[in-house]
Specification:
Elements (H helix, E strand, L loop, with lengths): L5 H7 L3 H11 L5 H13 L6 H5 L8 H23 L4 H17 L3 H17 L3 H14 L10 H35 L4 H12 L13 H17 L3 H11 L4 H4 L1 H18 L2 H15 L8 H22 L2 H16 L7 H17 L3 H14 L6 H17 L3 H18 L3 H4 L1 H12 L6 H21 L11 H12 L3 H14 L6
Helix pairs in contact: 2-5, 6-7, 6-8, 7-8, 8-9, 9-10, 9-11, 10-11, 11-12, 11-14, 12-14, 14-15, 14-16, 15-16, 16-17, 16-18, 18-19, 18-20, 19-20, 20-21, 21-23, 23-24, 24-25, 25-26
Length: about 525
């Protein structure tokens, strides 16, 4: 954003409370009416327009250079106001303000007052693992001892504490680096196989730091230890182990970890729950995440709200769909429509791809064929398979079941050919990478008469067998694989001659009774 618009973007980001605090703050200064008038005009603007200020004679601004000076002054005052407003809402700010006060007292040779403040800031920095700030506290403590014949703490004690803080800080940095490496693997490969799997083991999983949490010297290090193990196990499809680690991660203190980091950890644990079919816990944790998002310990940025909406919408749809909760599905769809068209418009192409993929499943389960078709056609038409190949494959396979359901056999034949052609074009290791999906497509190709009940029963049995065979090979999946399990629900409903909602309810009831999880 251009430099002249920095104040405008800052004003646009303010909450109602912050705006009110600034208005009160300004009244303590001369010429406050002019500054408040400029500030209020900025609040009202949707797009920055400098002409508004130049034309308003009451402001006495004759040129752009004068306006720039006034804006710089307002920005400085606004930042002072925000520091005061937030000083008790952030441990970092509290310690930094304390360090400023220590310097002022030190310069006035008020040593005993400094000592008390240093003691308090040292405990705060230690308790909340703010090692960078803690080192600064030790520096002031070392300076302060020259003001006394007998200082409160000797040099050796300060140095030992400083060395421990540096060791803990380095330890947490080591774990954060491992976490970053795991994230790189996840972004590049998703689930890992072949050489990528070997590389993950060599560069991350086999690292001595990941052998035990006892190697962690702080909760921050523990956070990255559990998160790295969660991601690694997710990538090798050991979802049960991933769940174990992510559950440990959210037992840490969010005030020490930091609101935004803890927020990310909660979302990851929710992902672990979804992968195992723990949908009651999924919905409960989504509520907990929303509470965290609205709490004082997190900086509620628009990006975080959008990220929460993305997880909430997709995982709520997952949960209610597989639970067979029609009322929950309908309410979630209504809320998604409202938020997408108002709060989060437009959302990214990738987010829209994934959301549409889950919406089509939800529409299908509640029997809204028109909306299912509209979402499916829109998804396949606008989908960029280079962004989310897994979502594109899911929509291709879903189209086979959908056109069969609607008896659009010509479209079914076309979709079978498109799906088969896609696999042949993009699968480098054709049989290995997409064995389950390719098998499902082959079963559709083998059906000679789509009106023959016997052939259709064989099709659905084969679909179920293929999916369960895949799950059986990956013991960590807990008899559930969210990406394709919708096809098991569809197959069961056809084989048992029940509705999709009824079949989902039956499956989830049985799944809840037979959940397999070991610590």
């Amino acid at each position: 954003m251009a430099k002249r618009e920095l104040l405008f973007s800052l004003v646009r980001s303010l909450s109602k409370s912050e705006k009110r605090h600034f208005s009160i703050f300004c009244k303590a200064y001369k010429d406050n009416n002019k500054y408040i008038a400029i500030f209020n005009n900025l609040i009202k603007m949707d797009v920055y327009e400098k002409e508004v200020f130049l034309k308003d004679k009451s402001l006495g601004i004759a040129s752009e250079s004068q306006l720039a000076i006034q804006k710089q002054y307002i920005q400085r005052q606004l930042m002072r106001s925000l520091r005061l407003f937030h000083e008790n809402q952030s441990v970092n700010m509290e310690i930094q303000n304390g360090l400023c006060e220590i310097e002022i007292l030190y310069n006035k040779s008020l040593g005993w007052q400094c000592t008390e403040l240093i003691r308090r800031m040292r405990k705060l920095a230690e308790d909340y693992e703010k090692y960078g700030l803690l080192i600064q506290v030790f520096e002031w403590e070392r300076k302060l001892k020259y003001l006394f014949d007998k200082p409160e703490r000797e040099e050796l004690e300060i140095t030992e504490d400083e060395a421990l803080a540096l060791r803990k800080n380095y330890n947490s940095i080591q774990y954060e680096r491992l976490f970053s490496k795991a994230m790189e693997f996840k972004k590049k490969h998703g689930y890992v196989n072949g050489k990528a799997r070997d590389d993950l083991y060599q560069e991350v999983i086999n690292n001595r730091l990941l052998r035990s949490a006892s190697s962690c010297l702080s909760q921050t290090a523990e956070y990255y230890f559990y998160f790295t193990n969660t991601l690694s196990n997710m990538m090798i499809q050991e979802e049960k182990k991933a769940y174990f680690y992510s559950r440990k991660m959210i037992e840490l203190n969010p005030q020490i970890i930091g609101g935004e980091l803890f927020f990310n950890g909660l979302l990851q644990h929710i992902t672990s729950c979804v992968c195992l079919g723990f949908f009651g816990e999924t919905l409960s944790l989504l509520d907990k995440t929303e509470e965290l998002l609205n709490s004082p310990i997190i900086n509620t940025q628009p990006q975080l709200k959008l990220r929460y909406f993305y997880y909430w919408s997709n995982y709520s749809l997952y949960a209610y769909t597989y639970m067979g909760d029609k009322e929950g599905i309908v309410k979630t769809i209504d809320e998604i429509k409202k938020q997408v068209n108002t709060v989060f418009n437009p959302i990214s192409k990738e987010m829209l791809m994934v959301l549409n993929s889950n919406l089509k499943n939800a529409y299908f389960l509640i029997g809204d064929i028109k909306s299912t078709q509209q979402t499916l056609v829109e998804s396949l038409s606008n989908m960029d398979k280079t962004i989310r190949n897994d979502t594109y494959v899911d929509s291709l396979l879903f189209s086979l079941f959908f056109w069969l359901e609607t008896k659009e056999y010509s479209l079914l034949e076309s979709s079978i050919n498109t799906t088969d052609r896609y696999f042949k074009q993009v699968a480098k290791n054709y049989e290995d990478d997409y064995f389950m999906e390719i098998s499902i497509c082959k079963y559709f190709k083998q059906v000679k008469d789509y009106t023959d009940d016997k052939e259709l029963r064989k099709l659905y049995q084969n679909v179920k067998s293929t999916i369960y065979s895949f799950i059986e090979k990956h013991k960590g999946l807990n008899d559930f694989y969210e990406q394709v399990f919708i096809f098991v629900i569809i197959a069961n409903s056809k084989l048992n001659k029940t509705t999709y909602i009824e079949e989902a309810k039956t499956w989830y009831k049985n799944h809840n009774k037979t959940i397999k999880f070991e610590n």
